[in-house]
Amino acid sequence: GATLKWYDSAGTFLSGGAPTPSTTLGAGTGDFDTTSYFVSQKNAAGCETPKVKIDVIVTRNPPAPVVKSLVYCQGDTTKVLTADGLNKRWYDAATAGSQYPSPPVPSSTTPALLSYWVSQTVNGCESGRAQLDVEISAITAAFTTAKDSLCGDEALDFLNASLSTSTPGTFTSLWSFGDGAGPFMSRDYTYRYPNARGTYTVTLDVENIRGCTDRVSKVIEVFEIPAMTLTGSADKICQGDAIDFEGTATPGYSGLSWDFGDKDPAFNSLKVRHAFTKAGSFTVRLNGNFPACPGTFASVPVEVVAIPNVNLGRDTGICPGNAPLQLYNITGAPVDQYMWSTGDTTPSIQVRNAGPYSVRVQNWQCSASDSITISKACYLNIPNAFTPGSGSDYESYFMPRDLMGKSMVTFSMQIFDRWGQLLFETDKVNERGWDGNYKGQAMPMGVYVYAIRVSFANGISESYNGNVTLLR
User: Fold this and answer.
1) Angle at CA 442, nearest 5°, toward 439 and 443?
2) Which DSSP string do the residues of 203-235 spell out, in sequence order?
3) CB 148 within 8 Å of CB 221
4) Distance of CA 331 to the CA centre of its chain
5) pTM surpassing 0.90?
6) What is the per-residue pLDDT across 295-337, written as a single tens digit (0 to 9) for each?
7) What is the pLDDT of residues 36-72, one digit of tens each?
8) Cα 444 from Cα 392, distance rounded (Å)
9) What letter does residue 76 receive in the DSSP assignment?
10) Where are the beta strands (DSSP E) in 31-178?
């Protein structure tokens, strides 16, 4: 209309013009409140129309829906969100934001604190939004140890490293050690296994304040405290002899090594035979390497007695009637016992006759021996016949053969026929001798005379005269 006139519910003219209704509902007014207004229009002539009633109905704003926060554990199967209310609308923000086309289903893939907002519409009025929180909780079980292999009953600390995403981050822990003991409730734990070989699975179960659980396991290997023994077939031997050694070791060793004290090792065997080439006192040791346990060993002492050193010198000669020869160990090495071929047991003996002599010396049970041949140095072995051209030099030439050159100093030989004519002479012992010729002519068969003169290193000189038969 035109030139409108407004009146309140009591018919009082409102000089301020068109009213603005209040949307505030008073207490006890119910869900609706009606306020009536009247309006007329007036024309240019001043005529006013009848009043028309306008009812303003204010509907009470509905409350936000009733929601309940939810908790899921990571990986749980989640459900569609719900709330107590009518004609609900779900949003991703407290104000404005985007509306979900349908009630959402939270994801439990990743630990998080998720928030959703929901309103309800009653009598055409949409309420404010209620916040619904969904916690995706998780706990990760974890623990650490200084090592995963133990030696015997040594203590091992198990340190809990579990983490919970919920606040507070507290959780309960249950330990099982794979040997039937437990479970034990404690955040950390120190445990000892019996001293026996075994493999055990340690399990830690944890649960956080939201009821979420996790489990972790680790294998612990326990080795028995190692022990070793060692025996030998002898503890005292002669140099060069061998000893059989046998060791015992707790099973499970990773390696064995032998140290005989003479820089000649052996490996990875419990039985060995070892010959000692050096004399002295030695400590034989069997070493064992064991997983998780310190190396251990067993040892035995061994005494190796040196073989006596004996030397009687080179073969030599002797003249009967002269001063005796003294035989002794020219090395000067210490010897406990002497046993001569003559029956003597003294460190030295005197001999007056040619022949073989020997001595056996002994220290403890270790012995050695040496021998020497004493030759008769004051005579010549002179043949009584020879045949020129018959074969060897020994048979074809006349010459004393066993000259004992090691003790001879001078030598001369002359050959005469039976009338005293000189046919041959020499002063050299390395010549072949007389070949039965004289001035290139063969002498006839028969008997010839020789004259031989020699002197020896012991100062004795001798002359040999005799007959030799020339054969053809």
Assistant:
1) 95
2) EEEEEETTS-EEEEEEEEEEEPPP-EEEEES-S
3) yes
4) 50
5) no
6) 899 999 999 999 999 999 999 887 655 678 899 999 999 999 9
7) 999 999 998 989 999 999 999 999 889 999 999 999 9
8) 20
9) P
10) 32-41, 52-59, 70-73, 89-91, 112-119, 121-122, 125-126, 130-137, 139-140, 143-145, 149-151, 155-160, 163-164, 171-176
